[in-house]
Amino acid sequence: MATCSFHFPQSTMETRKAVQYFEDLLPVMAERLGGEGLIEEMCKGYRLLMDGEKDVITFESLKRNSALLGLQDLRDDEIQSMIDNQLCCGKI
User: Fold this and answer.
1) 8-13, long-range: CB within 8 Å, 24+ apart, which pairs?
2) Is pTM beyond 0.85 here?
């Protein structure tokens, strides 16, 4: 089984690089999984992080499930920033 490590960005520049890295991998993931497979995997990830009662990713659900991503040491302000960034973009 492949392992995945993720370094939580500490600056705006690191955040941009992390987003670019993900965006660069999207075509590779789509090619390997196919369009339907990619959507299915993204949905699985969303369901893993979401609040089961509200069907959205909340601060509490992200904090509770962050260890599943290897991010158990995230501070509350980092988690809130992730939520805020996604809310402003309409992604959650």
Assistant:
1) 8/71, 8/74, 8/78
2) no
Of 27, 3, 26, 6, nearest to 82 by C-alpha is: 6
State which H helix or E strand residue 78 sits in. Answer: helix 76-88
In the chain, domain spans: 22-88
* Tokens at 63, concatenated: 């904090």
> What type of residue is 69?
L
| 87 CB-side CA count, 13 A | 10
pLDDT digits (tens, 9 = 90+) for 5-31: 444 455 566 656 666 666 777 888 888
Locate tokens 């969303």: which residue? 46
b/e map of 64-86 (b: 16 or more CB within 10 Å)?
ebbeebebeebeeebbeebbeee
Length of the chain: 92
Please compute the mean of the pLDDT values over residues 54-82 and round it to a whole number.
86
